Amino acid sequence: MDVMRKTAVAAAVAVLVVLAVWAVVNATLGGPSAEDVLDAIGGQSSFCWRAELTDNLTKEEIFACVNYNNGSAFWKVTSGNGTSLTRAFPGEDFYDLNWDLALHSKGVEWNVMNFASWVLKEGTAEGIEKVGRDEYEIRVVLRGTDSYAVGTLENGSRVEERHEIIAFLRVDGEGKLKGGHFTWRREMHYTDWSRDEVMEIRGSFEMLGPWNN
Length: 213
Known about the structure:
It is a single chain. By secondary structure, the chain is α+β, with helices and mostly antiparallel strands. 28% of the residues lie in helices and 49% in strands. It has a 9-stranded antiparallel sheet. Helix 2 (34-42) packs antiparallel against helix 4 (112-122).
């Protein structure tokens, strides 16, 4: 009995050692969690980024910066129609409207940090892969539905929308956002117009560092 008991204890200890080693290895190789990335996003007060967006009809290149410290932002957009510049500088025309876009919009073109935060909070992080030295890629999937109205009072329609975002967020070992790419698919059913529409946006972005304005 003593031999059997000692053998069982030894086996249990061996299993615990294996599990402990596996946990250490997994923590070492697994990279940052979604919570780490969200914490890093929350710690960013000034940043610039470059993005490319392509949909069914157009392609846009965006260079933009946001600074929460002094409440300013700008967005330079280049497409087939030329180049446009939108600014949110205190005291300038349309400041409240444009700064609200910087604060609350979930689109990559307006605030890439809001986009990354949104998909991480509302979506599901399905996996992480090491893609370089101290660099990881997190796959996130966000699916949802929405309903709203479009058109005029005389000729409007209710819209039932389903959307799916598949995003790959590239971060460093501490969770700081470095870049990424994504596909955003929207399926719209216009109830009163008996019409369906599908739109797919393919995008990529690179973080450029802080904006010292």
